[in-house]
């Protein structure tokens, strides 16, 4: 049984079908990339899994149980963390306040929050000197790292992350991805990743799915980075 299973799932916006009959698995401990052009339905899929949209058809299950439909906080409590496109940084609050807000929102007390923040800081040492800085004044890369810290603070089983590289310089994108890989390796965090940088995603992931106009056009392993990148580029490029 896969950790996350989508079986023939469709998402609509009113009369418009954004994603049609999508079946997709994320195996425990794996990194899976969901790729496709702008408008292909990637963000719709992630936000739907996170509970922001109700699937029109199909089933979404997590550890064999149906995920609550369109109930964001219940999905989060089941161990699914969601980092939307654009990150959702509370810019006027300090980094520490951002992290505490997530921890308290998840029901941790002050002492538990401290322990979890110290744990995630080990993965993001660059952020430890920034705890009292207003989050909105950090660089885009630092904000992305803070958001990944915030998402993993509550020890999720699955991280849904939408275009973590968006708007960042290539070297910073690399650093963010290295951090994702480290979380996957050291904490066994499973990841479903949406990305437009095909090569980077293929290098990072164990498995890829490609959407085109809301429909699945390719899925498979990506152990052969070059061949997979070339193949995916025919759909995305
Ligand atoms: N809130 C919305 N209301 C109506 N249509 C939307 C909304 N969000 C996305 N769409 C449409 O759904 C399709 C898929 O969008 P999206 O999932 O954001 O694609 P991607 O993340 O792959 O770029 C697009 O045609 C887009 O215009
Ligand atoms: Mg998107």
What ligands are attached or bound here? adenosine-5'-diphosphate, magnesium ion
How can the largest sheet be summarized?
A: 6 strands, mixed
Strand content: 25-35%
What proportion of the residues is helical, as a percent range? 25-40%
Calculate the terminal CA-CA distance, rounded to whole Å.
Answer: 33 Å
Could you report the average pLDDT, rounded to the nearest whole number?
93
Q: Could you tell me the number of beta strands?
A: 10
String of helices and strands: EEEHEEHEHHHEHEHEEH
Overview of the molecule:
It is a single chain. The protein is built from eight helices and ten strands. It has one domain (4-236): P-loop containing nucleotide triphosphate hydrolases (Rossmann fold), CATH 3.40.50.300. It has 237 residues and is of the alpha/beta class. The strands form two sheets. It has a six-stranded mixed β-sheet with strand order 6-7-8-3-9-10, with helices on both faces. It starts with a strand and ends with a helix. It has helices spanning 42-49, 72-77, 95-105, 110-123, 140-152, 170-187, 198-204, 225-236, and strands at residues 4-13, 16-26, 31-35, 57-62, 65-66, 80-83, 158-162, 190-195, 207-212, 215-221. Adenosine-5'-diphosphate binds at residues 13, 16, 18, 36, 38-44.
């Amino acid at each position: 049984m896969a950790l996350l299973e989508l079986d023939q799932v469709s998402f609509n916006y009113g009369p418009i079908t954004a994603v049609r009959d999508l079946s997709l698995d994320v195996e425990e401990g794996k990194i899976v990339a969901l790729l496709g052009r702008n408008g292909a339905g990637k963000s719709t899929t992630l936000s739907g899994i996170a509970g922001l949209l109700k699937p029109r058809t199909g089933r979404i299950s997590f550890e064999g149980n149906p995920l609550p439909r369109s109930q964001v906080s219940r999905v989060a409590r089941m161990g699914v963390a969601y980092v939307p496109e654009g990150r959702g940084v509370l810019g006027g609050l300090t980094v520490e306040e951002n992290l505490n807000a997530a921890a308290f929102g998840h029901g941790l007390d002050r002492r538990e929050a401290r322990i979890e923040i110290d744990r995630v800081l080990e993965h993001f040492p660059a952020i430890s000197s920034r705890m009292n800085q207003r989050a909105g004044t950090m660089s885009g890369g630092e904000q992305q790292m803070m958001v990944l810290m915030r998402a993993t603070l509550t020890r999720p089983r699955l991280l849904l992350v939408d275009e973590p590289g968006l708007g960042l310089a290539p070297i910073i994108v690399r650093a963010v991805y290295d951090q994702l890989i480290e979380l996957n390796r050291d904490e066994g965090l499973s990841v479903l990743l949406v990305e437009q940088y095909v090569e980077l995603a293929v290098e990072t992931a164990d498995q890829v799915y490609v959407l085109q106009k809301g429909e699945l056009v390719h899925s498979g392993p990506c152990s052969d980075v070059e061949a997979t990148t070339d193949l995916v580029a025919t759909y995305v490029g």
